[in-house]
């Protein structure tokens, strides 16, 4: 395992630096490294590292979502209002409907299979989006209208919504019965996640304020509580739905509200952690990609991804109607809501493992969605934010 970790960090960092020199997102180089060392190519990674790849990807998400929470101001979130709520589910619904419309026309699959495919590729990637929105907040781009905060809030809930819909559709495919009650878990999961985060944030901020601790010890406490919130989500599954990732982000927001100076110190340490977590995350995302599936699908799968993206962008535009955002700012929001990676890597292979007829097709389109949208969306955000957004004076 240690040799595999060395390969991941050394090759991932090297590729990231090379791609930065080429004026391309470093994550693209890391994903390509992951594809090269994966079992589907040169098979350089130990089986033990691959067996815990899912947990390592979640660790990276914990780090970046906590960092996002520590950077978010509740006052900015309040200013966002209605559009942030709509961004949580409207773009994903548009994209799922687009896949349901086009997939049966270009691939031999049923409407239900297309719905499963749509629910897999509809989630935006916090791992790609969140670091970029944090950078914009730090640099002051778009903050006068709370644009980074809008995208951060929407992207965090978007994943919860999509995963619940995916679970409902795969359940229907297996049993022939659609569990309508499962859709009611969406608001419950969101509300309980936020409440758990608020309670955790109150306890943690009070504890860290009173106990004499070094900054590194405070970091370990917050990180450990984050892991416990994820474990709560797992233990409560099937009993009470709760979004662990939303709880983690809410905890960060609450700590910032109660102890701003402490939050800024923690945020700096989380930034340093993200340097390592980013490499792990994107190399391991690349390691899940099987190019054989992508090559077999040809233009049909590419067409599905491209059409779904265009419709998704229309969904983002609808969310931003009757807002103060200019045409350029709305265009930036459409670009920022494109990237996909972590959710697709996590659930793309589940229909295949469940023995569903659409399994290979869903996995293929999920792979292509990562390869096309993660780098393309990141490039668009990185190259356009200075032109499309106003910098705070």
Structure characterization notes:
With 393 residues, this protein is mainly alpha-helical. The chain contains 20 helices and no strands. The protein has helices at 2-21, 26-37, 47-51, 53-71, 74-80, 82-87, 90-106, 111-121, 126-139, 147-175, 181-210, 215-235, 244-258, 260-287, 291-297, 299-319, 327-336, 342-347, 350-353, 359-388.
Blueprint (SSEs and pairs):
Layout: H1 2-21, H2 26-37, H3 47-51, H4 53-71, H5 74-80, H6 82-87, H7 90-106, H8 111-121, H9 126-139, H10 147-175, H11 181-210, H12 215-235, H13 244-258, H14 260-287, H15 291-297, H16 299-319, H17 327-336, H18 342-347, H19 350-353, H20 359-388
Task: Please give a quick description of this structure.
79% of the residues lie in helices and 0% in strands.
The structure class reads mainly alpha
- Count helical runs: 20
How many strands appear in the DSSP assignment?
A: 0
Shape: globular
- Overall average pLDDT: 89
Query: Helix share of residues?
Result: over 70%
Rg of Cα set? 20 Å
Straight-line distance between termini: 49 Å
Largest sheet: none
Helices and strands, in N-to-C order? HHHHHHHHHHHHHHHHHHHH
**Unreliable residue runs:** none
- Estimated share of beta-strand residues: under 5%
Features:
about 400 residues; mainly alpha; 20 helices
């Amino acid at each position: 395992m240690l040799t595999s970790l060395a390969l991941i960090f050394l090759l991932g960092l090297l590729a990231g630096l090379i791609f930065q020199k080429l004026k391309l997102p470093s994550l693209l180089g890391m994903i390509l490294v992951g594809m090269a060392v994966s079992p589907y190519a040169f098979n350089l990674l130990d089986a033990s590292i691959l067996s815990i790849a899912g947990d390592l990807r979640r660790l990276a998400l914990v780090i970046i979502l906590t960092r996002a929470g520590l950077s978010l101001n509740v006052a900015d979130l309040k200013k966002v209002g209605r559009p942030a709520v709509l961004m949580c589910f409207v773009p994903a619904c548009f994209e799922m409907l687009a896949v349901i419309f086009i997939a049966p026309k270009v691939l031999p699959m049923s409407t239900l299979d297309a719905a499963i495919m749509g629910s897999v590729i509809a989630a935006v990637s916090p791992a790609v989006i969140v670091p970029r929105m944090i950078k914009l907040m730090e640099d002051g781009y778009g903050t006068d209208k709370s644009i980074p905060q809008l995208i951060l809030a929407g992207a965090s809930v978007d994943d919860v919504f999509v995963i619940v819909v995916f679970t409902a559709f795969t359940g229907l495919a297996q049993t022939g019965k659609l569990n309508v009650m499962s859709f009611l878990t969406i608001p419950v999961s969101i509300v309980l996640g936020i409440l758990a985060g608020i309670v955790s944030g109150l306890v943690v901020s009070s504890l860290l304020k009173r106990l004499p601790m070094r900054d590194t010890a405070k970091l370990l406490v917050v990180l450990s509580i984050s892991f416990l919130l994820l474990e709560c989500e797992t233990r409560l599954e099937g009993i009470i739905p709760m979004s662990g990732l939303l709880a983690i982000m809410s905890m960060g927001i609450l700590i910032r509200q109660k102890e701003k100076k402490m939050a800024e110190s923690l945020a700096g340490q989380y930034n340093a952690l993200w340097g390592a977590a980013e490499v792990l995350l994107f190399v391991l995302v690349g390691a899940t990609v099987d190019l054989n599936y992508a090559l077999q699908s040809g233009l049909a799968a590419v067409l599905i991804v491209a059409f779904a993206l265009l419709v998704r962008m229309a969904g983002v535009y609808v969310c931003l109607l009757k807002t103060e955002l200019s045409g350029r700012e709305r265009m930036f929001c459409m670009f920022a809501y494109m990237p996909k990676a972590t959710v697709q890597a996590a659930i793309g292979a589940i229909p295949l493992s469940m023995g569903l007829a659409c399994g290979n097709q869903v996995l293929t389109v999920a792979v292509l969605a990562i390869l096309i949208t993660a780098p393309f969306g990141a490039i668009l955000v990185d190259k356009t934010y200075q032109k499309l957004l106003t910098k705070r004076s």
